[in-house]
Amino acid sequence: MSTNGQYVVQTVDVSKDLALGQVMVHALRGVTLNVKAGEFLGVIGPSGSGKSTLLGLIGGLDTPTTGQVFIDGEDITNLTERELTRIRNEKIGFVFQFFNLVPTLTALQNVALPIRFARHRKFDPTGRAMELLTLLEVDDRANHRPNQLSGGQQQRVAIARALANNPPLLMCDEPTGNLDTVSGALVMQALHDVNEEMGTTIIMVTHDMDIASQAHRVISLVDGRIADDIDPRSAAQMTAMNLLREERGLE
Length: 251
Ligand SMILES: Nc1ncnc2c1ncn2[C@@H]1O[C@H](COP(=O)(O)OP(=O)(O)OP(=O)(O)O)[C@@H](O)[C@H]1O
Ligand SMILES: [Mg+2]
Hints:
Layout: E1 7-20, E2 23-36, E3 40-44, H1 51-58, E4 66-71, E5 74-75, H2 81-91, E6 92-95, H3 107-117, H4 125-135, H5 151-162, E7 169-173, H6 181-198, E8 201-205, H7 209-212, E9 217-222, E10 225-230, H8 235-248
Parallel strand pairs: 3-8, 3-9, 6-7, 7-8
Antiparallel strand pairs: 1-2, 1-4, 4-5, 9-10
Helix pairs in contact: 3-4, 3-5, 4-5, 5-6
This protein binds adenosine-5'-triphosphate and magnesium ion (MG).
Magnesium ion binds next to α1.
């Protein structure tokens, strides 16, 4: 099938079966999702519903059992490990719950690192790293090491690092999961700034409905399927979503 260039991500009826001992777990059961360039998508759902599995397929960390995945118009479904590595390096930034910064390097050096290692070096490592730290409002901590930074500051440095080579897509798995409310709000503000000022498409998995509702669009996964796909800014839909959550016993 051909893809429409306006989508940064397309999944077409993807499923993922995982072997757990003798048992086959159907982690995803036919997920079709289109994410437009510049969108900020939230993904919610109970534990085990397939959120991380879906992120892994879109992020080229894993391949689907059936179905197709397109990133930035390119079919990545049947790529080799080496080709997937290229897609990950060029197209996708990753942000995780635990910031995973290199402890012996300063904030600036952490952000500059992927620029130094890029196959096609597009930016001056130090200049670009400083620019990103400024956008994320942690430039005053550029010469500090991770253990000298708060959790929220570390996460903003991690976001800067994920954006180092200007990927069109940023994938975040529970980016505020390890932060207090105030630090989490600053990280969310930073993600909005990135989305608006750099035009980066963002896909963010979270357990937190208040965090998810700050996205442009929220899908909820239940048992490996998309159960809802809403615009959280629409109050009526939000109420319906809350009712559904209560009904299903979600957090
Ligand atoms: N490597 C694996 N081997 C076997 N089963 C797995 C593996 N990884 C995940 N699963 C199963 O696949 C299903 C989906 O898991 P997934 O990690 O995508 O859930 P999740 O929505 O991210 O949950 P959480 O909110 O707890 O992070 C679960 O039933 C899980 O037990
Ligand atoms: Mg998960």
